[in-house]
Design brief:
The chain has twelve helices and twelve strands. By secondary structure, it is α/β, with parallel strands linked by helices. The protein has an eight-stranded mixed sheet, sandwiched between helices. Bound molecules: iron/sulfur cluster (SF4) and magnesium ion. Iron/sulfur cluster (SF4) binds near residues 281, 285 and 312. The site of iron/sulfur cluster has 12 residues, from loops. It is found in: Cell inner membrane. Belongs to the ABC transporter superfamily.
Length: about 325
């Protein structure tokens, strides 16, 4: 609730005050047990920072984090360490996140010894079981990360994350470094594991295509804020925020004639150290008016379970729905 994280940026000169980077600003949401919750936005929107805040891999500037009915914002390090058995992260680059000098068996077994869950023969048996769960072979345990493809490495990372029996998995762009052809396999694996182990999954992604068929609810982030939050079916059939519509227009479609009628907005992400006044999206928004330059729109309920941070969301959606064709 109200999660905020500011970073001090590099000082431009010795005498200047270091500018503050608003990486995540007053973000609130609740993830339901057993769902796949997606956080989507361009790189630099704060989604990776947000996912690290949730696990307290970095500390929030303000706000609170609750996990399984417990406020964990100020939990002491030792208790937090124990709690991390239940909340695990899968990283974007499986190669960088796996120690190259450790065998696959050691990598997957390490959390088991660290948390005192299993050792010796029992650990070896658990590792073999975990390898099978992610679609790898028992004798892969004796090999090293460099001997595997990107997709296989991500499977190793997933097995390692699963080792302690977590209830929450956070994937920070777990497939964006992989070939397009194997992304679906890894996403499907996560979905299978979610069903088998009753996991809750938070999936961070920079495009909507990746999460389209897997997420239950989606939060769209822009410059450190959530600008739209809805269940996936609603978001994809009736996107309300102009930024969400822009992301949708960027989803590749097989038939170019079926392309969205929404104009693709030009422009880059403004600097998070110097955010524009009013609506943060107004410099790029094709619908921006005077009010947008003055007044910051807060996230408000538009329909039940559908929240949006745009002054004119309904009006824009009503005016354009006729011309909006989404890919199947
Ligand atoms: Fe665009 Fe204005 Fe809505 Fe912001 S508030 S998204 S500038 S229409
Ligand atoms: Mg990132």
């Amino acid at each position: 609730v109200g999660l905020t994280r500011h970073f001090k940026a590099k000082k431009p000169s010795l005498f200047a005050r270091a500018p503050l980077v608003r990486a995540v600003e007053n973000v609130s949401f609740k993830v339901r047990r057993g769902e796949t919750f997606a956080i989507v936005g361009e790189s630099g929107c704060g989604k990776s920072t947000l996912s690290r805040l949730l696990l307290r891999l970095i500390e929030p500037t303000a706000g609170t984090i609750r996990f399984e009915d417990r406020d964990i914002t100020a939990l002491p390090a030792e208790e937090m360490r124990r709690l991390r058995r239940r909340m695990q992260m899968i990283f974007q680059d499986p190669y960088a996140s796996l120690n190259p000098r450790m065998s696959v068996g050691e990598l997957i077994g390490e959390p088991l010894s660290v948390h005192g869950i299993a050792n010796g023969k029992e650990k070896a048996a658990r590792v073999a079981e975990l390898l099978a769960k992610v679609g790898l072979l028992p004798d892969h345990a004796n090999r090293y990360p460099h001997e595997f493809s990107g997709g296989q490495r991500q499977r190793i990372g997933i097995a390692r994350a699963l080792a302690c029996g977590p209830s929450l998995l956070i994937g920070d762009e777990p497939v964006s470094a992989l070939d397009v052809s194997i992304r679906a396999q890894v996403i499907n694996l996560l979905e299978d594991l979610k069903a088998e182990f009753g996991l809750t999954i938070i999936l961070v992604a920079h495009d909507l295509a990746v999460i389209r068929h897997t997420s239950d609810r989606v939060a769209v982030m822009y410059l450190g804020e959530i600008v739209e939050l809805a269940d996936a079916a609603t978001l994809f059939s009736r996107p309300l925020h102009p930024y969400t519509r822009m992301l949708m227009a960027a989803i590749p479609v097989p038939d170019p004639r079926a392309r969205s009628a929404e104009p693709i907005t030009e422009g880059d992400l403004p600097s998070p150290t110097d955010p524009p006044p009013g609506c943060l999206f107004h410099p790029r928004c094709p619908h921006a008016r005077e009010r947008c330059r003055q007044e910051h729109p807060s996230l408000r309920d538009s329909a039940s379970g559908h929240a949006v941070a745009c002054h004119f969301a309904e009006e824009i959606a009503a005016g354009q729905s006729a011309g909006l064709a989404l890919p199947p």
